[in-house]
Amino acid sequence: MLDPKRTIAELKELRALTADEHGAQRVAWTDTWLRAREWFAQKLSSLPVEHHLDAAGNRWVTLPGDSEKALVLGSHLDSVPNGGWLDGALGVMAGLEVMRRFAEQYGGRPPVTIRLVDFADEEGARFGRSLLGSSAVAGTDSIAADRVRKDKDGILLENALRRCGVEIDRFPEAQQERRNMAAYLELHIEQGPVLESLDLPLGVVLGTKGVERHAITFHGQEAHSGSTPMHQRHDALAAAAKLALEIRNIAGAHPDAVCTIGSVKTFPGIVTAVVGRCETTLDQRDLSAEVLARMWCEAKLAAERFAAEEKCSVEWSRIWSIEPLPFHPELVELCAKAVSETCGTAHRLPSGPLHDAAEIVRGGIPVVMMFVQSLRGISHNKIEDTREDHLELAVAALDRLADSTVEWILRNSQ
Ligand SMILES: [Zn+2]
Question: Which of 128, 239, 284, 349 is least enclosed by beta carbons within 10 angstroms?
């Protein structure tokens, strides 16, 4: 029988094993992370499953079924430094509970193969490369750029992986794990305040938002703050400040869009000088590629207008971007059904943060995610939390979704 209370007890066990007074310390490729994974492997010993690490260090647990077609459940055990107890770990441990239920109900042989994955290095906390393990599975990895990444102590990513028995040159072999993968389901904490504000325990995730991330630099003229009249200034900060307010209007035209200017640096950055150069960053996100493209265009036009108003110039360079990754429409419907049967209302929302699920979409696999409410919307912090009754509902809803997805897989393979 499904036992959601056991999932909560195990998450607390993991917290006791891998957290200190500042929070969870399961940073990928560290000893604490290895300890967490060892603990997880021990949990598997009483189940009729095979498990192994793939070429990118992801752990795969397989309960063979009558059909080779596989339902895959998963998330990640790694955390950011001083992280929370639920981010990632919830999806893995809830997946384990669902797998136990399948093993028990079908006498060790469910109608389709059930797999559980703990992806390696979702957070990218040490080397600045998120979704490392899942990108290898999806075949969207970037080995050449990643192998030479260094952590803050100057240790190469390639060497840190080798210490854990992972050779980066063998990453492409991890794509084998996609064979027979018929669907991927991931339960995750929301990490934002939306479900709490609606007073709902669970949400149906429509996909992960695309991201446009740009460096924007305004060029004006450094000048003495005492001798330069106001109307003769070329104030680069004034132009940037206008943009920082305008992006609220740009995002506000779309219900789920967000735009953030998260960094502003002024030069020369002293109290007695008009700002001659202002470097800012813009991060824009939405679930629609069209909206994303329009918002970028609007921000660019606005920046040019404000630069002209302040007698400055502006230049842009793209830092990074990723396309929106909508989840599978039929799985989204199954998830909505599971959520509404569990707690009455199925609210649909996009995910602002990226998740391993996004890489699996890029790998061509049908995917859906379910969110459970985060208290105060806080994550990546030791105060990250979720009500225990909500965690229990989440495990139960994931279990329902797993059942209906197995039926869906069987229908599709006839
Ligand atoms: Zn996560």
Answer: 128
Amino acid at 150: K
Ligand 1 centroid to Cα of residue 128, in Å, is 15
Class of domain 4-208+324-412: alpha beta
- Give residue 413 CA to ligand 1 midpoint distance, Å: 31
Cα 88 to middle of ligand 1, angstroms: 4
pLDDT in tens, 52-100: 999 999 999 999 999 999 999 999 999 999 999 999 999 999 999 999 9
* HSE-up (13 A, CA, CB side) for residue 392: 8
Q: How far is the CA of 223 from the centre of ligand 1 (A)?
A: 47
Contacting residues for 212 by C-beta, under 8 A, at least 6 apart: 282, 283, 284, 285, 292, 295, 296, 318, 321
For the chain, the domains span 4-208+324-412, 210-322
Return the HEC string of 195-209. HHHHCCCEEEEEEEC
pTM: 0.92
Q: How far, in Å, from the CA of 372 to the mean position of ligand 1?
A: 12
Q: How far, in Å, is the centroid of ligand 1 from the Cα of 75?
A: 7
Pick the CATH number of 210-322 from 3.40.350.10, 3.40.50.12780, 3.30.70.360, 3.30.360.10: 3.30.70.360
Cα 87 to ligand 1 centre (Å): 5
